[in-house]
Amino acid sequence: MKYVLVTGGVVSGLGKGVTASSIGLLLQACGLRVTSIKIDPYLNTDAGTMSPFEHGEVFVLDDGGEVDLDLGNYERFLDSTLTRDNNITTGKIYQSVIDKERKGDYLGRTVQVVPHITDAIQEWIERVANVPVDGKEGPPDVCVIELGGTIGDIESMPFIEALGQFSYKVGPGNFCLVHVSLVPVLSVVGEQKTKPTQHSVRGLRSLGLTPNILACRSTKALEENVKTKLSQFCHVPEVNIVTLYDVPNIWHVPLLLRDQKAHEAILKELNLLSNAVKPDLAEWTARTKIYDTLQDPVRIAMVGKYTGLTDSYLSVLKALLHASVACHKKLAIEWVAASDLEEITAQEAPDVHKAAWDLLKGADGILVPGGFGDRGVQGKILATKYARENQIPFLGICLGMQLAVVEFARSILGFHDANSTEFEPETSSPCVIFMPEGSTTHMGGTMRLGSRRTYFQVADCKSAKLYGNAKFVDERHRHRYEVNPDMIPEIEKAGLSFVGKDETGRRMEVVELPTHPYFVGAQFHPEFKSRPGKPSALFLGLIAAASGCLESVLQTGGKVNKISKNGVANGTAVGKVHQNGNMYSNGNGLHH
Ligand code: GLN
Questions:
Q1: Which of 398, 431, 461, 549 is catalytic?
Q2: Which atom of ligand 1 sits closest to the CA of residue 422?
Q3: Which of 51, 59, 60, 478 to mutate to test the pocket of ligand 1 (most atoms within 8 A of CB)?
Q4: Residue 64's Cα: distance from chain center in Å?
Q5: Angstrom distance (rounded) from CA 322 to CA 312
Q6: In this protein, which residues make up the domain named Glutamine amidotransferase (predicted)?
Q7: Helix, strand or coil for residue 508?
Q8: From atom 1 of ligand 1, which residue's Cα is the shortest distance away?
Q9: pTM, full prediction
Q10: C-alpha–C-alpha distance, residues 39 and 145, integer Å
Q11: Does 252 qualify as catalytic in the annotation?
């Protein structure tokens, strides 16, 4: 097993996660099998309890692990399936050591950070690195480890110590340290400054780690003399210094690394040059080129709660992007804060209310994502009603699907107080109820989490076709509430169709309105399994419907525009030509 450690210096937010994922992808393109580990030095045992408002979305894995969103980046770039153990936190490590201590495994010795915590970290890394994540048998060739935070943080110290010991243990030729740093340009002199990087490399060395490769974030490519200086002061050969200068989008990062021969530098450090082939990134490059040149917009209104922080919906945005690129559309996200659509806003801030409705009405498609808590619920219901009544393509995810059922029960069945018992426990029409998989009396550990199977009930429905005429699909879940199975006959009689259910037939997974161009809700979160080259079926359906090409996508069983190596799409889906003028008012919120 070979290890690539990615650390960060100077400031946070340099794009360490994207760099680590890109390194993984590049090595994969060289024919190697790659896995990844993300280390988060915080004390939470997992990301499940962390607010997406503060921390970005909680990413969910097949095994039900609730993890840092960086694992989503790894899965998307490497098309891998990770496990909860691929995300190490301080909380997990301490918990495992304390559990052992309670069991008496340390035989009366004093339990300390060094060696017990540091040993536990190394054992964890070694164990997880050997687990295949690409569906093939046998251990991967390389494990890319990303250490969260910035060198010098107090909370990452035990990890640095452990990784220092680990690099010594696995020995040279098996360990490569890539340090991501910042080379700022001061506007007064316009000069690329190396001092911050020098300092952070010094910090790294003083902690016992020596960088093999420097990846410098900068606005432009590093000047030769700047590289020479960095090389001298940081003791890293010039060929091992790469610049991650600003690019239009993150799909360029693996290409940037390849162009600067980062793979050769890494493979050399790892003694893998003879095992690897020339990197094949033809399909990736073609897709990136298409992404760069898209002009014809598709406007999707995201009716959510945390509209201030786009990271709270990262996977949803990525899934929309994958689908848009596949349909050759330029994604324009219109952020609509759900509560702005509500009547109360009309009274308190009419301008805000009008602006929100204008955005919603200008969109080609509407998406109501998942969520917890009752803020904005009424606004989401109004947006759903608008989509349903005006034949606007609509996708509701998890809470979005539940509210679509609530809206239908209220408007069509006339159950005026229909609600989810999450928001109104006393409602006389509980169409969404608490349906935990475990205990009904305890909240803790009752979430339905991770991969579960959905069986399609109707072969002729849009969702089944989008999934390639599948009989069943496995998608990831994260919820406690579900559509009330006792109300299904009534709701179905009124026209809403539950086209996907679990194996018991009691849990509603996919809902569709057959009379509508595209009105689909899913109890699961399809966004977590979307990949740049394999867009998620239900997102593809939304984007295709919003661009007027759903029919051709349905006919081909959910396939569009397979991107060929020369960058020419050989599919047939063509979207309608958009008539609106200024499409870019809100940007697309994708580059951060
Ligand atoms: N709050 C809802 C539930 O627990 C929906 C959750 C979600 O959207 N992820 O079922």
A1: 398
A2: 1
A3: 478
A4: 15
A5: 18
A6: 309-543
A7: strand
A8: 372
A9: 0.91
A10: 7
A11: no
CA-based end-to-end distance of the chain = 33
* Structural domains of the chain, with CATH: 2-7+14-175+248-287 (3.40.50.300), 294-556 (3.40.50.880)
Residue 437: name the closest of 397, 480, 474, 398 by CA.
Answer: 480
Distance 188 CA to ligand 1 centre (A): 51
66 is catalytic: no
DSSP-derived 3-state class of residue 47? helix
Give 397 Cα–ligand 1 centroid separation in angstroms.
9
What's the 402 CA to ligand 1 centre distance in angstroms?
8
- In this structure, what token pair is assigned to residue 46? 């997992």
From the CB of 478, is ligand 1 less than 6 Å away? yes
C-beta 575 within 6 A of ligand 1: no
DSSP conformational letter for 28 = H
And the tokens for 421?
């018992």
pLDDT per residue as tens digits for the range 293-314: 999 999 999 999 866 777 889 9
pLDDT tens digits, 421-451: 999 999 999 999 998 876 555 555 678 999 9
Residue 71 CA to residue 85 CA, distance in Å, equals 11
Q: What is the DSSP letter of 529?
A: G
- Name the residue at shortest CA distance from atom 5 of ligand 1: 399
